[in-house]
Design a protein that fits this description.
Length: 112
């Protein structure tokens, strides 16, 4: 009987410019290290993340977290930039809706 082949954990994380903007991701998937790190920072344990993303193994989650901890400053900066962009887009959308409501109200007042 042959022993099972060892997995090279260095091959579990990859990146390529044409997938997910070149962000590091779990090899063979589109799941980015940044996304896994985001859940981890929200307080999810590796086991909870593996249950949430059931197509990834616990080993893949740990590989992503190891990569995150080795590159934490870079990935945290990406997470911060993504959060800032979300906040900017949300505020822009909210202001646009407020302006539309004010415009409608003005039109109704002028029509009366």
């Amino acid at each position: 009987m042959t022993a099972p082949a060892a997995v090279d954990i260095g091959m579990m994380i990859t990146s390529s410019p044409e997938i997910r903007g070149g962000r590091p991701r779990v090899a063979g998937t589109g799941m980015t290290v940044m996304r896994i790190a985001g859940w981890y920072k929200l307080g999810y344990s590796p086991e909870e993340i593996a249950r949430k993303i059931d197509h990834l193994s616990l080993a893949q989650i740990y590989a992503a977290l190891a990569y995150y901890h080795a590159n934490q400053d870079v990935i945290d900066a990406d997470l911060d930039a993504e959060a800032a962009e979300y906040d900017r887009a949300y505020l822009e959308h909210k202001l646009k809706r407020q302006q539309e409501a004010e415009d409608r109200e003005l039109e109704e007042q002028q029509a009366a």
